[in-house]
Amino acid sequence: NAHEVRSVWTSDEGSMAKQTAEIRWAKIIQGTVDDMGETAAMENIDDQKRAESIAIQIALKNIKKEIQKDNALTPLQDDGKPDVQEWNNLLAVIGECSWVNCPWLFGECYMYRRIQGILTSSKHWQNYDVFKRQKDSTFVKSRAAVEELANRYMQTVAETGLVQNESKEEAKKLRFIEMTEVSLWGNATDLSLLANLTLEDLQKLQGRDAIQKSQRNIVDNDTDDVWAYLQRTAGQHSRQIDIVLDNAGFELFTDVLYAAYLLDAGISTSVRLHTKESPWFVSDVIPSDIESLFKHLDSSDCFPSRESLDQLIPRLRKFFQSGAITTTSDPFWTTPFSFHEMPSKAPALLKELQNSYLVIFKGDLNYRKLTRDGLWPHTTTFEEALGPLGKQSGIKTLALRTNKSDVCVGVPTQREVDALNEEAPDGAWVQNGKYAVVSFNEGQ
Ligand code: F6P
Ligand code: MG
């Protein structure tokens, strides 16, 4: 029962939560300090701005010290944003807690909100994205996979005329599986985990072969159910699909490609991409990352093999220009609330999602929020773990997520859980990003 299952804390032994709080957070903050330093050292930065960057770097380093000393989490200071009180109320409800002894979901969101607070209360750095440099440089390293996927997509379009003319049912379904998995495994490379990955590792995670091999690692796979739902409802007049995005760069490329496919194949009539309003969990998409994606794709320095890209890019752009693909941000995505709180905290957003034909949630953080970061038994149904967004919610939810935290539900049987524990012991299959879920719930 939902209320008995606790959420993971950063003090839980053996958890990804603890490891993240003890090791990764300090590195992430140091990354922001280094980034500020590098930008401030650039020639075209004026003196006042440079001087202010020193103060910002000190404030950032102070967060790092707080984490390393495991200080108590303190209320946010007023930085002029309307959400401060809400954060502090929630902190008060949690009660006394510290960085390495707090609910993981809250603590991690709080860290990104603190970074944001420092920048937004500055004079010269209000809209500065401390993670942009990292996002850009990693995207460029995904060259091989980007070019491969572009080739593959344009080849498909050439072979089948328009994808939507494909007549054979089985071929259509296989295409759906393939494109869904491209978007799924696009999530394998988020930057908050990248600290530990080499370029070679990165390239191994991407590309078609890697994707095919990974299929058996999908521990809850509802692709057939999604497909059945889409077939059953294909006659509906308006079929807007919402994609709640996760990471910029390579994953965003796979998601835009997926959106294009959903439109080309006639599965959806429009696609709405949800971005974050401000920098979040290092690599999450903010509005400016969309334009940045196209800027990179257009550049033959980044992507020298042009043939397919030169055909694909105008095709993708057209979807944005015609309004077939739109983008939107909601402040709820950058709150510390899990999605179980959506009915009370973001009722208008909830209504929009209820009106959607299908809502696709990308990535680990969205999954943690869908399931309240709860330590559910792994055989708990996805529907149950969704709480108020599950049964009778009216939301058609599809989670595409590689497993990078402590929560994972929907594994069909305990036998399968046992087998996974044997194959990848000590929770590795829930944590190491090599396993994944394609979990669907119709909200009926
Ligand atoms: O621990 C890794 C981590 O920072 C998690 O806290 C978080 O859930 C995840 O990375 C972010 O992954 P994603 O970009 O898939 O949401
Ligand atoms: Mg992310």
UniProtKB/TrEMBL annotation:
Keywords tagged on the record: Hydrolase, Manganese, Metal-binding
SUPFAM superfamilies, sorted: AF1104-like
Damage-control phosphatase ARMT1-like metal-binding domain mapped to chain residues: 21-419
Pfam families registered for this protein in UniProt: ARMT1-like_dom
Needed cofactors: Mn(2+); Ni(2+)
Cellular component GO terms held in the UniProt record: nucleus
Molecular function (Gene Ontology), one example: metal ion binding
Enzyme class: hydrolase
GO terms of biological process kind: DNA damage response
Enzyme Commission numbers on file: 3.1.3.-
Catalytically driven reaction(s): beta-D-fructose 1-phosphate + H2O = D-fructose + phosphate; beta-D-fructose 6-phosphate = dihydroxyacetone + D-glyceraldehyde 3-phosphate
Protein family (similarity comment): Belongs to the damage-control phosphatase family. Sugar phosphate phosphatase III subfamily.
Functional summary from the UniProt entry: Metal-dependent phosphatase that shows phosphatase activity against several substrates, including fructose-1-phosphate and fructose-6-phosphate. Its preference for fructose-1-phosphate, a strong glycating agent that causes DNA damage rather than a canonical yeast metabolite, suggests a damage-control function in hexose phosphate metabolism.
Domain remarks: Subfamily III proteins have a conserved RTxK motif about 40-50 residues from the C-terminus; the threonine may be replaced by serine or cysteine.
Protein name (database record): Sugar phosphate phosphatase
Organism, as annotated: Penicillium arizonense
